[in-house]
Amino acid sequence: MRSMDVHTVPDLSVSLGRIHLKNPVLVASGTFGYGEEYEDFVESEELGGIITKAVTLEPREGNPPPRLAETPAGLLNSIGLENPGIEVFLTEKLPKLRKLKTRIIVNIAGEKKTEYLDLAEKLDRETGIDALEVNISCPNVQRGGVVFGTRADLAFSLVKGLRQATNLPLIVKLTPNVTDITEIAQAAKEGGADALSLINTILGMAIDVNTRRPRIGAITGGLSGPAIRPIAVRMVHQTHQNVDLPLIGVGGITSCEDALEFVLAGATAVAVGTANFVDPVVSLEIIEGLREYLKRWGVHSYQSLVGGLRT
Ligand SMILES: Cc1cc2nc3c(=O)[nH]c(=O)nc-3n(C[C@H](O)[C@H](O)[C@H](O)COP(=O)(O)O)c2cc1C
Hints:
Number of strands: 16
Number of helices: 9
Distance between the termini: 17 Å
Structural class: alpha/beta
Strand content: 15-25%
Largest sheet: 8 strands, parallel, barrel
Order of helices and strands: EEEEEEHEHEHHEHEEEEEHEHEHH
Strand order of the largest sheet: 3-4-7-8-9-10-15-16
Radius of gyration: 18 Å
Bound molecules: flavin mononucleotide
């Protein structure tokens, strides 16, 4: 590590494969809408990038209510990929996203391989998109998506197909609901992924003992928030050790220190999810915190921290 003058403003810019980010802090899919929902709170230009809510080929209504339930240090959700579909995304959401001076990563989801490929082909024709995040990890849909994330052969074949369908960088979003996440990570790499993001939510359940009913309409939901952070950090560490691809660390990040855990475990960038619901400007505080950390420790380059865990 090179030392740094205390008056220098630390440079947080970083490359995530082919994607250049002004800083490593992104907002996670499904927790920041399509950007416009947060425009009164956050100067999007300050962010490393925005990962949009999942878009599917057809509009989806999502799962029955209730869709959210708080748990100790966590949130259970079963939104079920509610979204207006690709046509509305292209005509109404993308024109607004294009105007934002930050990286735009579009999260795509589907039930069949052909749906993912159609989405990729449509988005490939558009300007203003910096990468696709391929959601093969949503626990809240009955078919499709999550199956690709739990079987290495299917993950490989899907990513390979997508690699042929688009030149856009492909970030594959992995599910923690597997025995060995590194197997799926390796399959995504062999299929042609540029980067990986991990983790999506962990399948969970909560019951109201007075009504004897599940707290979530779909019975099970995806657990997010600080409760899942140690699992996510462990999975980033394991993947960094075994698979040579840049990683986006996601799962329970609420502060700069949380973000740094992921970076030291091997994440090149991080994405802030559930914490946006508690404090919409938390990502900006994390960016500032990273600058202060670099200054405090006299670290010249952010990149040198990635995977800097001492064991
Ligand atoms: C309400 C909600 C909606 C989400 N929607 C999506 C989605 O559309 N696509 C996706 O890949 N991940 C989605 N996620 C998962 C998050 O992007 C993130 O991976 C997960 O919540 C863990 O991070 P966190 O603990 O910081 O929230 C969603 C999470 C929540 C809480």
